[in-house]
Amino acid sequence: MATAIDRKGAGDDEVRQFLIGLARGTAGALLFALPMLMTMEMWFLGLYINPWRLLLLCILNLPLLLFLARRIGFENIHSWSQALRDAITAYGLGIAVSAAVLLLFGVLNDQITASNIVAKIALQSVPASIGALLGRSQLGQRSDDEDEEEGEYSGETGYVHELFMMMVGALFLNLNVAPTEEMILIAYKVTPYHILALCLLSIAIMHGFVYALHFKGSHQLHEGQQWWQSFIRFTLPGYIIAIVISVYTLWTFERLDHTSLSQIMNAAVILGVPASIGAASARLIL
């Protein structure tokens, strides 16, 4: 009898923790995605975005959420099946929050076709679902025991894992600014000297965020390790990832159509500034 009661208590506690995780995920989706939910360019994109590009973005978001959930799910994750459940839950929260907010703002009220409504919600659900997972790590209060338990996995800071977290951070911050017209406008106004300066600034910011400025959670150089070793191993690959993600998001949002190669590179470098900050910050907060 006592064993049955203990099991029931453990099950109730697990359900309670999961519901708390859902609440944090909803709060995270609102906190991280609200700027995009209130951006006019994101509303208009739903009217004309290429459906195949949107579908590709939504499909790619699934494995991204899966690996991110393995890192920070709604509760302590011990298997890939649990990570898959949390990834699907986060995507569902992203869709629900996006639909609810757009409906409350009246953005969906004037839509003639269902495809436009679906496109608008699908666009917003990608950053919202990422925010739902980030909500746990940023909004949750955990005890030292929980931190130690999570450290069994969180401590896995392998090279591929580091690069993946940079990609997540770059993509998330890019989604905030890539749809805006200002990216293209700046690309037309800058000179080659501006582009060079932005490249150097982005790389310096990335390296400074992680190694030089000693933020909480930043990486420390190992004894005997030279600064240029971490620079070549992490900072430069991280910046390349930021540029690739920038090109992809600009392409997805049809900001590169009918533009020259030089304009594409200018836009990528400009968007690479927030992308590099996002990539460096992801290594600190996730």
What does the model show?
79% of the residues lie in helices and 0% in strands. The N and C termini lie far apart (42 Å). It has helices spanning 2-37, 40-48, 51-71, 80-104, 114-139, 144-154, 159-177, 182-189, 192-212, 227-252, 261-285. Helix 2 (40-48) packs across helix 5 and helix 9 runs parallel beside helix 11. The protein is mainly alpha-helical and 286 residues long. Mean pLDDT is 79; it is low at 141-156.
In short:
This protein is mainly alpha-helical and 286 residues long. The chain contains eleven helices and no strands.
Strand content: under 5%
Terminal CA distance: 42 Å
- Based on CA atoms alone, the radius of gyration comes out at 20 Å
Strands, count? 0
Low-confidence segments, given as residue ranges, are 141-156
What does the average pLDDT come to?
79
Estimate the helix proportion, in percent. Answer: over 70%
Summarize the SSE layout with pairings.
Blueprint: H1 2-37, H2 40-48, H3 51-71, H4 80-104, H5 114-139, H6 144-154, H7 159-177, H8 182-189, H9 192-212, H10 227-252, H11 261-285
